[in-house]
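ok here's the first one, seq then struct tokens
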Amino acid sequence: MAGKVFVSVSMSLDGFSAPESMEGIAATAEQREQDPRLDRWVAQWMALHAWVFPLRFFQENLKLGEGGEEGRDNDIARETFERTGASVMGRRMFDLGERTWPQEAPFHTPVFVLTHDKRDPWERPGGTTFHFVTDGIHSALDQAREAAGDRDVRIAGGSETVVQYVNAGLVDEVSIALAPVLFGAGSRLFEGVDASRVELEQIRSEPSPRVTHLTYAVHRR
């Protein structure tokens, strides 16, 4: 039996899943000095994901050492990882990750990257192999489903990729870690969604000290 297709992201209270730019993540000290916005954007991204960094699962998955917090946030992070048999992401998300992920990328499953450029699969230590798909979102999802088997497929991002899959009626579930931060501008998670074709059914709402975890089933109208 095929698994679900799901989205799991962190989102600011005003609806953004990323700051205006992610270039600050890989910027040099000189670049940050020349453009102060880079530090602000990095600070926004760090605040958005602050609930993840202290977790035991995060420390284990990135091999940062022992220890870390347990509790419901940790359980949700681990459950999300364990249910995922393959991921799909956009090229811009991959390009940033290629520069910033550790050598052992944190997915440990196949990842299918939407792109216009042909490229051979890129295998990383720890079980992650990136496959580059040039023939559209349906092909990428078909390949991800086959790779995932009876586990779920995660649409990892960015927001444009998420909206493409939601608008195509291909997403079964959306989980949002709603962070108590405001961006004011950036990459809005549901920018361009066709609300006339999408209906959400709330499944769960779980508050934690750092975020509120919201889960919705996605239905076509």
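and now the second one, same deal
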Amino acid sequence: MDDLMHNDPARVIEADRAHVWHHMLQHRALETSDPRIIVEGRGMRVWDITGKEHLDAVSGGVWTVNVGYGRERIADAVRDQLVKMCYFAGVQGSVPGARFSEALIEKMPGLSRVYFANSGSEANEKAFKMVRQISHKHHGGRKSKILYRERDYHGTTIACLSAGGQMERNAQYGPFVPEFVMVPHCLEYRAQDGLAGADYGVRAAEAIEEVILREGPDTVGALCLEPITAGGGIIVPPKGYWEKVQEICAKYDILLHIDEVVCGLGRTGTWFGYQQFGVKPDIVTMAKGVASGYAAISCCVTTEAVFEKFKDASDPMAHFRDISTFGGCASGPVAALENLHILEEEDLLANSTRMGAYLQEGLSQLMEKHALIGDVRGMGLFAGAELVADRATREPLAEKQVQAVVADCLRQGVIIGATNRSVPGFNNVLLFAPALIAGRAEIDEILAAVDGALGRVTG
């Protein structure tokens, strides 16, 4: 029966339509159109069940498949490991867990401990729990507040949405967990005070300090930020921002938690996004690119100082009393280790930097051609183009028109992304995150599709 179904696309489509609850999709649309089912991927290209080929400019739709599709060595390593030892709860160790942790920490000077889980949301939950437990154990429960930034995103659970700066993602899911407090965004293109460059960078960081002082420094335990805001519009913090943020955290004894779920493992051209800015975090979370989607894995990585706060044999409640069931699956770390080796052997971080510059240059040239593009920004193979109805006023282009650009590219066989149902009034940024194996030919194909789509949207 399975073989018959595999060879019968119509049956697969109907089974999907009848039984699968898709992510982030209004299913009314599937009453009049077929679900898109992806059946194969090689390199940067995927094929759907109808046989149509697409160039994937968003690494699996959500910025995950960093080393591209069809990597047999990762699949083979996972297969061999699962036959030998597939799973044991994380209270015990594993060979791939130990090996990958060692290899990962070598890329993260100043950090030392890796806690395994299976999704970015879960990794951030672990970090939030660590902060809260440290508050109870070492600060009498006082330093329990966690600050997060407007337009940043940290996951789908209720606690992660409580730390989410995208109001449309949060809508209808409250009430939220208390003592999560928002600080202002740092998008220079839409600067709150009309400043620019380092002046705005320092001012945007000072806005965080103002929130800390308002809440009371002795009540704030951590500041959770993306190194580059991802789904909120590809926001690269201005010069001076991260230096001032680090200074503020040290001044008030606040743990700095960097969410690298999107930027981690080479996306920006360094192993982690925070390394672009000289930041020294206390906690780093990661997922997506850790194993490039070949297995489910996330990590919450801490300094030894954070780890030591949970070591107290005299207190039976002192250790981190947490477990992630599938954090014990051996497929994650073994896939992650092979993924890391590929990134090293093929020098994909350098390629991300090189091809990212080429992508940015191409988008900037399109900006000269198309008045709809108001701003181009990004780092490495992670770029955004903000679309506007009027460059002079910077009025955002309507979300419907932005999605029309995405749909036009899809018809051309190129999959790009865009902010949607995230930031009220500002779902107007095209998103690009091609696999780190991208070459000039693939970037040219992406740019040509966007060029054509923008021309047709403007009529």
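notes on #2: The chain is about 40% helix and 15% strand. The domain at 28-57+372-458 is CATH 3.90.1150.10 (Aspartate Aminotransferase, domain 1).
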